[in-house]
Amino acid sequence: MAVHERSQAKGVGADELLAARTGLDPASELAALERRVIGCRRCPRLVEWRERVARERRAAYATEDYWGRPVPGFGDPDARVYVLGLAPAAHGGNRTGRVFTGDRSGDWLFASMHRTGLASQPTSDRLGDGLRLSGAFVGAAVRCAPPANRPLPEERDNCLPYAAEELRLLPDVRVVLCLGQFAWDAAARILGVRPRPRFGHAAEHAVEGGSTMLASFHPSQQNTFTGKLTEAMMDAVFMRAGELAGW
């Protein structure tokens, strides 16, 4: 039984589940959008994969309930910085139900956000662990965990309208901070930037209307273990995001 089913069996309603994952007022338009995200079944390959992972589980989490559904965005509805990732990790967000929560990339991300004043604590391994974001909202280009962490182009295109709608409902956002090239290219599509600007760590691109695309290498273990992305590099990107956002 997946976590959402078990929670409902215990008497926890849909609004409580949503609030735990997003920190949003269940009556808000943004919360209504995230409810649509959670119920999405547009991509058969992703539906099959996320649910199979949730049934089979990794040995380290064999006794845990997995979320096994699309993962909503979360954070501060008054955010000035929108952090865009690639997709939930199979045994991270797909397990916990909150993007970047419970995986190594999230540990790196939230540690940097904590050092730069955007997160209430440096780690997040589960719902209800006290994490709160201030001035930032975190989403993903694709909301379901994809096999081998590689969404297909049509899966990306099915999902991008959710991030576009989040940005519409976050009117104070001034910076879209893209974690990795996939997110950078996705942001260019969402924001209608043509031709697509070149990706590189700390790259910036001014968007018509006054916002800015800002790039970082993704905080994957492949990048952090090899030193391609250091703590100082990630902190500098978040500090630059703050400058661009007008803090």
Description of the structure:
The protein has 247 residues and is α/β, with parallel strands linked by helices. The protein has a single domain (3-245), classed as 3-Layer(aba) Sandwich (Uracil-DNA Glycosylase, subunit E). The chain contains ten helices and six strands, in the order ααααββααβαβαββαα. The protein has helices at 3-9, 14-22, 29-38, 44-56, 93-96, 104-115, 153-168, 181-191, 221-224, 231-245; strands spanning 74-75, 81-85, 136-140, 175-179, 204-206, 212-216. It has a six-stranded mixed beta sheet, with helices on both faces. Strand 5 and strand 6 (212-216) form a beta hairpin. Helix 6 packs across helix 10. The N and C termini lie far apart (45 Å). The model is unreliable at 1-12 (pLDDT under 50).
Search tags:
disordered N terminus, 10 helices, six-stranded mixed β-sheet, Uracil-DNA Glycosylase, subunit E, 247 residues, alpha/beta
